[in-house]
Amino acid sequence: MSTIPPEAPPGGSALPAKPRQSSARILVRNVLSNWTGLVLNMAVAFFMSPFLVRSLGDVWYGLWVLIRSTTGYMGMLDAGVRVAVVKFVAKADASGDSVELNRTVSTAYFLFCCVTAIVGVGTVALAIAFPYIFKIAPETLVVTRIVVLIAGTSLGVSLLSSVAGGILTGMQRFDISNQIGIATLVIRTIVIVAMISMGYGIIALAITHLSMQVMNWFVISHFARRLRPDIKIDMREANRDSAKKLYGYGSANVISGLGDLLLFRTGEVLAAIFIGPAAVTYYAIAGTLLEYLQKLVFTMATTLHPFSSAKQASGDERSLQAVALVGTKLSFLIALPVIGGIVIFGHEFIAAWMGASYADLAGPLLMAMAFGRLFWIAQSGTFQILLGAGRHHQAMIINVLTGVLSFLGGLIAIQKYGLLGMTIGSAIPVVIIHGIVTPIYAMRTLKIPLGRYLVESLLRPVAASTPFVLALLAIQYWFAPHSLWAIALAGIAASPVLVLSSYYLAFNREDRVRYLHRFIPSTRARAA
Fold first, then answer.
1. Cβ of 347: how many Cβ atoms within 10 Å?
2. Rounded-to-integer distance, Cα 394 and Cα 412, Å
3. CB atoms within 10 A of CB 49
4. In this structure, are 92 and 199 located in the same domain?
5. pTM
6. Which of 466, 487, 514 is the last residue of a domain?
């Protein structure tokens, strides 16, 4: 049952006062924590991708990517409740209403139990239908179906752990979530390398992922209880009103998530249907590098969702405007230099990482993907702010429209122009919508002047990135690095140019005081 302190007034509970931290400090702490976890994930994935491709082979690796993509579609059955839990936990925590908080998390857990049962039925159906949808060789059929069943079970466990994860995220404790994620990552990587090296193959890979998902669920639940011991998940607290609230907010987000699936997860499916599982491997290699970049920005952007929810609840419009400008600026400032490096060194990087044969096919795909993804990445922070500010229905429409048009563009193009045509056809709608439509809507919604937006969120990051890209071009011209170490050293050699240009060109004085000087000890006195 829900527990309420004795001094709580009827209808809610006044939680003990918590030490207040500045908004800027909370945001920076969460961003740095997310980036630490992401960098480690990227490092592991960078090693694991060629290891798995060489150990499993093109067909089995392509099947692994395809299975994870198709079973991942069933994650849409949560109907956006995962995102809604974050929203309402943040809101209830800000207002100190533990009664409503308990009702929300109890209802969410009941809903996830129901959804997990449906996922189980869907997984069995998918395992049966898999060879009728994709070009699966008869000798791989039995193992493929077993892996589908394991992957579906892993998805069900992930759904059940969403409530505890939503509590940590809603309370803006990304640092705890990332510490758990890093520990899980290390254990999972060691086990996978050992199992694959001993020749156990794709089934062992799937079982390891499932086992780590179960462990992660229990650990997250433990820390959620420690952080908020007053939260009690009780099925008897589940009620229709809370369910309507969760689905009312979440329904728009799940449809928006459908747009993301159409945009980022249908390329593998189209490649498998029209070409075959081996083609999925080449497409996945190109997509993996950009996925790292997307995650780098998205882990920063996700901190803006609970932050903007709290600011919207308190009516702080000025903070929403400020964080929207800084969030978009940082997204561009991260994406532009990386995209520039991908265009300059992409082919050589894939050749050194995966092999020359993969670079010839995946290199052009990487270039085409990079152009479209740049604009999506730049607006990822804006989307999180719109979600937190209660503009989820509008964000849904934009995201779904992008996903549908991108999917149709890829579907039409692949039948005539193959993988490269599909990639280009998918990228064009993204450039148009996220390069023009989304910024205009965000400016009007948040009441940001056009001139201020263009200068702060676009021109400043472009100006700061240009010297870095020019430095990379000079290194490529004079030294032509081809090995991974040489390419890495080229980036390191040019990075001081990016740091200096970012400090002086990307950030104005107010940004430097608010977001930089407070966290650089040598400049705190000057900031004061």
1. 19
2. 27
3. 18
4. yes
5. 0.65
6. 466
Only one residue has tokens 């023009």, namely 436
Residue 112 domain flag = yes
Contacts of 97 (CB under 8 A, 6+ apart): 12, 13
Residue 509 domain-assigned?
Answer: no
468 confidence band (pLDDT: 50, 70, 90): very high
CA distance 151 to 122: 12
Q: 46-97, pLDDT tens digit by residue? A: 888 888 888 888 888 888 888 988 887 787 777 667 777 777 777 766 666 6
Q: Confirm whether 525 is domain-assigned.
A: no
**Domain coverage including residue 314:** 265-466
The DSSP call for residue 508 is -
pLDDT in tens, 223-250: 877 777 777 776 777 777 777 777 766 5
Positive or negative torsion for Cα 517, 518, 524, 527: positive
Residues 35 and 171 in one domain: yes
Q: Whole-angstrom Cα distance, residue 145 to residue 128?
A: 7
The verdict on 224 and 117 lying in the same domain is yes
> Are residues 245 and 350 both part of a single domain?
no
CA 365 centroid distance within chain: 21
Tokens of 88: 């309402």
Q: How much is the average pLDDT of 398-419?
A: 89
Report the candidate in 197, 246, 178 with the shortest Cα–Cα distance to residue 39: 178
User: Do 211 and 283 fall into the same domain?
Assistant: no
Evaluate whether 282 touches 362 at the Cβ level (below 8 Å): yes
Please state, in angstroms and as integers, the Cα–Cα distance from residue 517 to each residue in 24, 26, 457, 525, following that order: 11, 15, 20, 9
Distance CA 489, CA 346 (A): 15
Domain closes at, from 252, 279, 302: 252
Total number of domains constituting the chain = 2
The answer to whether the beta carbons of residues 370 and 339 sit under 8 Å apart is: yes
Q: Does residue 244 fall inside a structural domain?
A: yes
CB 175, CB 118: distance < 8 Å: no
- Rounded to whole angstroms, how far apart are CA atoms 326 and 453? 10
